[in-house]
Amino acid sequence: MKVLLNNILPFGSYVAINLFGLVLSRRPLSPVERNHEYIHTLQQRELLWIGFYLWYMVEWLVRLIQSFNFSTFKFSAKRAYYSISFEREAYAHQQDLTYPIRRPLWAWRKHLRHL
Length: 115
What we know:
three-stranded mixed sheet, mainly alpha
């Protein structure tokens, strides 16, 4: 996994974005942040990259719909993001720097909630 520092991506308050194993960041990453992104790299490899991005987008859309609040008539993109199984796995294990070494294949499926 390579980290490329730049002034453009990612947008908003995100620290980094992982595109096909290339991590784009506006600042150097901490070991925990690098570990989080490396977990995403492993997930991408398992799903042959394109499968990862297709699943990610579909799951994000489902989670966005699930986040709809009928009392305020608003969606919560932040809640949808944190509910994605890939993100749930990465956030759950980012502090454990040895996790990628012993991570079972398809481990993100354990973090999949009912769709």
